[in-house]
Structure formats: structure tokens, C-alpha cells
Amino acid sequence: MVGRTSDVIIRGGKNISAAQVENDVGSHPAVALCAAVAMPDETFGERVCAFVELRAGYTTLTLEALREHLAQRGTGKEIWPERLVVLDVLPRSSGGKIAKGELREIARNNSAR
Prior knowledge:
Layout: E1 8-11, E2 14-17, H1 18-25, E3 31-41, E4 45-54, H2 63-73, E5 83-86, H3 100-109
Parallel strand pairs: 4-5
Antiparallel strand pairs: 1-2, 3-4
């Protein structure tokens, strides 16, 4: 993971792979696209925030429903998102990649909610 430190979320001293979170969250049938980023937290340093685009035909996804899905898959609770943000479209860079910097800024600005 050299050079990809921004893809590691450090929650209470434990390193959580954003790619692993994205893989597990992306397995939910409602999720078309997912990006996981760190959200600041006074107690744990960082928490997991997942941003998702929904597939056609789905209008909503709740954090509770996502967690139920992750539990059924046997995903360890330590990588479950602690915040879920559903966007119509995830922001993209000029190269077409998901703009995680923009998502981190959104998570940072809204972490007090």
C-alpha cells in the first residue's frame, strides 16, 4: 500500500482498508458504486464513511440495511461504515476516477452531524 495512505482509514489505531470497505459495501444489491473515506472523530481519530451511488430501480439505502447485509455476509464489524451518504453521482476527477479528496472534504465538513 505504499503511496496509498489515503486509502487507509485509521480507527482507534487499527488500519482499515478503504478498498475492502468498498468491496463489501459494493456487494449490496442496491449499490452501483461505492467510495470509502476517513471521517474525523475525536475519540477514535477516524471513522469509516461510505459514499454510494444507487443502481437503477433503487431509491434509498439506509445504514441499518447496509449493516444487516454486511452481517449476513460475515463482514467483520470493524470495517462496517459508521456513516452512509447516498449521492446521485459520485464526484469524478478530470481523469474519470472517483474524487476521494472531494468526498473527504464532505465527510470532514459534516462529521459533526
